[in-house]
């Protein structure tokens, strides 16, 4: 009996896509299905997907419409009780699906479950990202625009995702909004164990790439705050107008914040790649640019070591 469908959306996933697929095939849980939506890739992704010969795989394709449209397309083909997400450049550890499925089966109040992750660079796995495990802290972090959960390794109840209408219709990063809306109708949780490796590579760490992601997160948080206050939703265009009307110093702080986040992610790629000394210097610079973010990261690190010592 198959209880889990893994949903993956991919745009130009080479050269990392095969490793993600291999990590799925190496799972201790073998009764699963995979739905892959190729969102108009222009590299070798389509050829690689066509070469896969596995009856558990459903390969779909569409013109490039963004991750939300691709996810909603794939969601129509997900009929199992549980749905797991996997990014095309990440790697799930062998027991990930088994552990998450067992957790959801024994915790019916939890609708969306994540896990702890570790960075994966060219030199292999590295430091872990410490995420909260309890619903209240996860929601507080998400509403504040901080990483309370990692979408790339969640498992959820398919019926609940369909109940909230799937992912939003905008050509924006879709993960944050979905996680917030799932947290409004069910409990959220993260496994305390590292079950997933998230890829860090320098090509994806520029501030220009992070800007639309942060915009999507801020927009999702604004929509959630409006739902809590009983206010009507706004469109992305209205949200853009609100942001443009902010005073100059808020724009300046946002630019510094994006720079710090970009430097932090690039430093991670260097630390777990071939430029460790440069990565250490860059990490220090990122910490100086964003002391608030640095304190939160250090706080998560310290909390984990306190729990380990207890």
Structure in words:
The protein is an alpha/beta fold. The protein folds into two domains: 4-202, Alpha-Beta Complex (Spore Coat Polysaccharide Biosynthesis Protein SpsA, Chain A); 204-309, no CATH class. Helices cover 49% and strands 20% of the residues. Strand 1 (4-10), helix 1 and strand 2 form a beta-alpha-beta unit. Helix 5 (135-143) crosses helix 7 (175-185), helix 7 (175-185) packs parallel to helix 8 (207-229) and helix 11 crosses helix 12 (291-309). The protein is globular and about 55 Å long. The protein starts with a strand and ends with a helix.
Number of helices: 12
The CATH superfamily of the largest domain turns out to be Spore Coat Polysaccharide Biosynthesis Protein SpsA, Chain A
Named at the architecture level, the CATH assignment of the largest domain is: Alpha-Beta Complex
Considering DSSP H and I runs of 4 or more, what fraction of the residues is helical? Answer: 40-55%
In angstroms, what separates the terminal alpha carbons?
40 Å
Rg over alpha carbons = 19 Å
Given as residue ranges, the uncertain stretches (5+ residues, pLDDT < 50) are 304-310
């Amino acid at each position: 009996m198959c209880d889990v469908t893994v949903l993956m959306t991919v745009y130009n996933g080479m050269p990392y896509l095969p490793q993600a697929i291999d990590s799925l095939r190496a799972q201790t849980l073998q009764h699963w299905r995979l739905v892959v939506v190729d969102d108009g890739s222009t590299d070798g992704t389509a050829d690689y997907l066509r070469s896969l010969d596995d009856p558990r795989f459903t390969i779909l394709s569409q013109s490039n419409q963004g991750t939300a449209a691709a996810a909603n397309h794939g969601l129509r083909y997900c009929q199992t009780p549980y749905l797991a997400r996997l990014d095309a450049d990440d790697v799930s550890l062998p027991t990930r699906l088994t552990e998450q499925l067992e957790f959801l089966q024994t915790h019916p109040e939890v609708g969306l479950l994540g896990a702890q992750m570790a960075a994966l660079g060219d030199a292999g796995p590295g430091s872990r990202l410490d995420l909260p495990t309890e619903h209240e802290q996860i929601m507080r972090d998400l509403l504040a625009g901080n990483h309370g959960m990692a979408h790339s390794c969640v498992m959820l109840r398919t019926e609940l995702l369909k109940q909230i209408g799937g992912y939003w219709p905008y050509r924006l990063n879709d993960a944050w909004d979905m996680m917030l809306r799932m947290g409004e109708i069910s409990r959220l949780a993260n496994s305390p164990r590292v079950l997933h490796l998230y890829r860090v590579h320098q090509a994806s760490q520029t501030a220009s790439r992070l800007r639309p992601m942060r915009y999507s997160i801020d927009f999702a948080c604004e929509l959630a705050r409006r739902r809590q206050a009983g206010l009507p939703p706004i469109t992305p265009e209205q949200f853009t107008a609100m942001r443009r009307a902010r005073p100059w110093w808020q724009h300046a702080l946002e630019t510094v914040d994006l720079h710090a986040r970009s430097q932090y992610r690039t430093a991670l790629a260097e630390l777990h790649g071939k430029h460790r000394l440069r990565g250490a210097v860059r990490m220090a610079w990122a910490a100086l640019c964003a002391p608030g973010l640095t304190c939160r990261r250090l706080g998560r690190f310290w909390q984990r070591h306190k729990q380990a010592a207890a």
